Amino acid sequence: MAAATATVNTPPSSSHGAPMAERPLTAEEVFDSVGSAYEDAFAGLPEQASSLQWLIRELSRSGRTRANIVDVGCGTGRPACSTLAAAGHDVLGIDISAAMIEAARERVPEARFEQVDVRDWLDRTSPHSLDAVTVYFSLIADVTQDEIRSFIAGIYRVLKPGGLFVFSTVPVDGENMQLKWMGRPVVVSSLPPKTAVQWIRRVGFKVEHEKVTKFLPKAAEAGICNAEDVWEEPHLFVYARKPGSA
């Protein structure tokens, strides 16, 4: 698939290392406070829906009708875990937020869910044990750029040959940026589009699709924050495959 690009700007009110008036929240605190309203704020992401259909189609083509899939940062379990489980796959959703895991278990009983940090999950997961991993905007808060690179390398390690990887992020070039997200003070890191895609290739993946889009979350409508606390986000989506036969 052809790559597409869009202009990417640093989020408003960001600073690199400057003190904030409020204590930054941890990722767990942020998503516990947002709760299930996150699903409403980010509903209707066309590229996310397309990525899930790509994943289901490619798993079917390779004969993996009951694939082992992990969604990192699963949130409420919808749409990723629900869509993949409905397609007949064995799905585990992991998230640092207890509130998100509770919501996911209620909304998507056909999948499994666990509250765990991605670092701990990667440490205990056996190499070459998974058919697919999805990451939708979860490797941003409370991480460094080096950790993001390490997580991607770790995901490559736990995938089987022929395993599939869908990665999405808010692709700004920043390390420990202090900003307001959904009205909440956070510290985030991310990689710009070119760097992220280059790293995914460098660890060994074959990149099959990359695209940058923009999305305005419906956070005010969902009751998460005021309208002035919402900004249009750039979104990078990458579809990748680990070389080898499934």
Instruction: Enumerate the spans where pLDDT stays under 50 for 5 or more consecutive residues.
Output: 1-10
Strand arrangement within the widest β-sheet reads 4-3-2-5-6-10-9
Taking the alpha carbons of the first and last residues, their distance comes to 21 Å
Overall outline: globular
CATH architecture: 3-Layer(aba) Sandwich
| Structural domains: how many | 1
Structure commentary:
The chain is of the alpha/beta class and 246 residues long. It has a single domain, classed as Rossmann fold, CATH 3.40.50. The protein is built from 8 helices and 10 strands. The strands form 2 sheets. A 7-stranded mixed β-sheet has the order 4-3-2-5-6-10-9, with helices on both faces. The protein is globular.
Summarize this structure briefly.
It is built from eight helices and ten strands. The protein has 246 residues and is an alpha/beta fold. The chain has a single domain (15-241), classed as Vaccinia Virus protein VP39 (Rossmann fold), CATH 3.40.50.150.
Question: What are the salient characteristics of this protein?
Answer:
Rossmann fold, alpha/beta, 10 strands, single chain, 246 residues, three-stranded antiparallel beta sheet
Would you spell out the secondary-structure blueprint of this structure?
Layout: E1 15-16, H1 27-34, H2 37-41, H3 46-61, E2 68-72, H4 80-86, E3 90-95, H5 98-107, E4 112-115, H6 118-124, E5 130-136, H7 145-158, E6 159-169, E7 174-181, E8 184-190, H8 193-202, E9 206-215, E10 233-241
Parallel strand pairs: 2-3, 2-5, 3-4, 5-6
Antiparallel strand pairs: 1-7, 6-10, 7-8, 9-10
